Fold:
Amino acid sequence: MPMEKTFDPAAIEAKWAHEWESRGLFRPARPDATPFTIVNPPPNVTGALHIGHALDNTLQDVLVRYERLRGKDALWVVGMDHAGIATQMVVERQLNERQQKRTDFTREEFVDKVWEWKTESGGQITGQLRRLGCSMDWSREQFTMDPHFTEAVVKVFVDLHKKGLIYRDKRLVNWDPALKTAISDLEVESHEVPGHMWHFKYPLAGGETYTYVERDADGHVVLEEERDYISIATTRPETMLGDGAVAVHPDDERYRPIVGKYCEIPVGPKEHRRLIPIITDEYPDPHFGSGAVKITGAHDENDYGVAQRNNIPMYRLMDEVAAMRADGAPYAEAAARAVEIAKGATATPAEIDALNLVPEEYRGLDRYEARKRVVADIDAEGLMVKVEDKLIMQPFGDRGGVVIEPMLTDQWYVDAKTLAQPPMAAVRDGRINIVPKTWEKTFFNWMENIQPWCVSRQLWWGHRIPAWYAEDGRIFVAETEAEAQAEAGAGVALTRDEDVLDTWFSSALWPFATLGWPENTELLKRHYPNDVLISGFDILFFWDARMAMQGMEFMGDVPWKTLYLHGLVRAPDGAKMSKSKGNVVDPLGLIDQYGADALRFFMSAMESQGRDIKMDDARLAGYRNFATKLWNAARFCEANGISASTSFEAPAATLPVNRWIIGEVAATVATMDKAFAAYRFDDAANAIYSFAWNSFCDWYLELIKGAIDDETKAVAGWVLDQILVMLHPFMPFITEELWTGLGDRADYPLITAKWPAPAATNDAEASADIDWLIRLVSELRTAKAELGLPPGARLTAHFPASLKSRTEKLAAQLDRLARLEAVSFDPAPAGASAQLVVEGETITVPLEGVIDIAAERDRLTKALAAAAKERDGLAGRLNNPSFVERAKPEAVEKARADHAAKEAEADRLTAALARLG
Structure:
């Protein structure tokens, strides 16, 4: 059945996506083959395909299809992450739309509703990945809440706890008041926002005074006055209620007289004002503000460190929604006890945590309302020095979208510092190869300074922490409640921990739990460690580093041998894509417009070892045109009796053009293999693009037109097959359609064909002849274009006698492609002529009587002057530092592109004038 006249991506994509999967071709049975394994970063069950997914999955699919074609047992593990926070948010939002909330249900009822949502609506992204052409082993699709995966998660938690690598502790965490849970540092986004810096007086206890002296850099006194206070500055006045001390630098002479004394927090009922000590610590900067800082250990990361070093009590002020606490004893009683503690009375951490130091008039207020009231009350008392407008860095939760509140809470932690040591050693000794190498420095910097990993989340959806509490505070960690009860003893009432584990804790087990661990399955033995992980650099610490930690702890080996980190896909102007900017690109829309093959090829050709990719519709259209050109080339072959090859090896060839193209295939395969080995996706894509478009479509098919004998049919069919195989990893749909369309190969689909391995050829004579011919024809066509001659104009060319043998050998192709009226080996006549220099030999084309030499010289001279003027004007702008530094980046980039274009035009016109002699 003849091929369709027009290439229709949508029709063939739907056809082949179903065909491959239904026939099990993504995981052909190859028990004796060398394994090759990739695990897909599991997308959120709530997710939809975005442009980052399109890049990440395209690169993985390119590698998997390449290795499958090379005969390997290629396994691409696919699955989804249960996405604790994101999924709970989706389901709670649905409940809210029905005027319900999570707490209207029991925990079990709510979790059932999440599973219902997952069954009905979750996982739309898997269908979208299929549209992209992802050849994953869908028959083994995984989910991080599957029973076998949950078993693995629980075992890891319990085993780490037994080793002392998981523990419970009261530490400062990032608290998201919208989600009512702790989140990790990696889930916090800091934005610069307008704010204020308030300066307040903290009166010295008992009305004491001291001489405050300020000096300039030379030691001269610039201010000397008697003070009965110490001045501090804060951007969060509501946290003053939890101050445990005021700190100054030990070398700050201004405050030396009052170190060790007490000052009064200037807020709350006068008769119950709290006293706190003035201490020294290296943290305060004597040159910033007043040089004195308040220490609120329960609500600030830096203050937390100061409080720990100096044994300063840390008082928690807020509840789970960041409202001021309303629990506990009356303020007068709590404040009195806090003063006793400040003066040396002992207190347990539990007692300190229970003390509510929020005065009654602020209790229950939202933190920002409390801030207004505190500022107003201090100002009314005359204790506010000044207030400054200031841009401040504000932390926001990446999911909840509200300002994060640092909060002192009880959480579960992983000793990440201990677990980080083996992965660092593996990167240093080469067991893990990070590509590109430039990311190693970032990896080590983070791993060497890694903090305890908070893994508990205050959610209902997720892996519930396997810990049970007795009434006396003892904790029993076990894989089952029965085991915990046995450890606690009969009759001991136990209550299970309400929290669930951080989603990244479970996904850290992905490389081995998806293969059957903790069972020692054949799949696990065969496919662990994985070969490659392809990941965006933005999840290097969220996921990649944690997989390395858990894999080496529980499997005793690296999770993967190579970690490839790619960049971001950015908007055309280089800006980061975001919904708020309105510059997000929908990859499904691009597939609808250009086809999946074009999008995949764009991603691959633009991926250059971790550099960010700019979206470019013109390039996408160009790659769609590339697919169309290949389609039309295949139709030309079909129309001329060229069909699928019956040989894996190159056919025997005697004609120079056929020997040349076979050599070009071998060179392209070698280039692509080298590129794949180095993870240079761009080099591999550009090699097959250049060969298919230029060598095959533009030149080979032109060279054989009108002379397609049996040898040429065999060679052309074989070469087209090699193109389809080499292009298949990048453009799987069109290549499979052409592969099966050009021959009866239903039982031998391209997806499981063999990667080309032609014998190394060094047909120097054929290569030299055809390369010379191509350069000659190119030079002649360029000269005609420059001189305003039509492409079909037939001219006479005078060749050196040394080229007589070559021109006779290539006479047929030379006549058809060069369109010469005559070929002469006599000296060229005097007069104007075009000089074509090809490989050091000059071919002369007389122009007398062909064109008006004077008019043409005049036209070219004027055009050259105009192009040179524009070129030089643009060069002047670009050499002006003021323009380069102050203009918008896109304006500078456009000026550079325009300058390059005008420079090229001027060079072309100069060459055209030179041709005229």
